[in-house]
């Protein structure tokens, strides 16, 4: 009986040791499955060009990686790719012992811009990168808080807004990758946009409205002035949109020009009706109609302005 007890106790102890030995590698395996963290930082040196018609822009910046050499090798860190561009890059500093790798990057990047508020729009320029082969279960990117924009950055025709760095997860089917994004906002100067985009067509429209000061008997001059200024406004509209790619929606400039065309249509309709009254020898009635049409014009313009403000 004692022998049986000894054998049973020995068996329990042996099985316990076996389970403990089997459990130890599993713990290590679970530790190995924990994703490695790779810190990414950017210092923007310059934005050399913003090409709205091609939906592209050229960035010049320093890019660095901070990592633990015990967790990820330098060769693995080098295996990253830009998602929204194919710029040139070269290494400026490598410190494998301390886990640091830095590049100077320069090249074109692509992004679909939103022109719904053109010519008063704000755009976000981004640089996005991922690792080529290590997904989020193996490698997690982290934004370095020391990232910044150089004080000398200047973009002709644009005002520079806020910048930020952040990390998102991007899925390719069942595969999920950690994606680092550096973004900077640019917007058009309000006064400059007004002078270049709104003021010219406002002057053209004002000139066309001078027809209300022309005598109804001179309806030929009235219609000629209205048609000439309408053609000028149409040409200006096409020139205004030539700086952006064809889009399938109305921009703010389009909505503004639609209001302008409504005013031109009203002006020409009044002139044509006055011409018919003059042809019928109803000069007094033509004078009265011209006066009423001129008085209604401010209300029409105010209504169109209110609609524009609501759409903006």
Gist?
This protein is of the alpha+beta class and 312 residues long.
Explain this structure to me?
By secondary structure, this protein is an alpha+beta fold. It has two domains: 34-188, Neurotransmitter-gated ion-channel ligand-binding domain (Acetylcholine Binding Protein, Chain: A, Distorted Sandwich), CATH 2.70.170.10; 191-311, Neurotransmitter-gated ion-channel transmembrane domain (Methane Monooxygenase Hydroxylase, Chain G, domain 1, Up-down Bundle), CATH 1.20.58.390. It is built from six helices and ten strands; from the N terminus they run H-E-E-H-E-E-E-E-E-E-E-E-H-H-H-H. The protein has helices at 2-33, 74-78, 190-208, 219-241, 252-279, 283-311; strands at residues 36-51, 56-66, 80-82, 88-95, 100-110, 122-131, 139-143, 148-149, 159-172, 175-187. The strands form two sheets. Strands 1, 2, 4, 5, 7 and 8 form a six-stranded mixed sheet that branches. Strands 3-6-10-9 form a four-stranded antiparallel sheet. It is rod-shaped. The model is unreliable at 1-5 and 23-31 (pLDDT under 50).
Rg from alpha-carbon coordinates: 34 Å
CATH class of the largest domain: Mainly Beta
Query: What is the residue-averaged pLDDT?
Result: 87
Query: Which percent range describes the beta-strand content?
Result: 25-35%
Order of helices and strands: HEEHEEEEEEEEHHHH
Q: Give the % helix.
A: 40-55%
The CATH topology label of the largest domain is Acetylcholine Binding Protein, Chain: A
Domains, number:
2
The parts where pLDDT drops under 50 for at least 5 residues are 1-5, 23-31
Shape: rod-shaped
Give the helix tally.
6
CATH homologous superfamily annotation of the largest domain: Neurotransmitter-gated ion-channel ligand-binding domain
Work out the number of β strands.
10
Please give the alpha-carbon distance between the first and last residues.
Answer: 94 Å
Biggest β-sheet description: 6 strands, mixed
CATH architecture of the largest domain: Distorted Sandwich
Which class do the helix and strand fractions yield?
alpha+beta
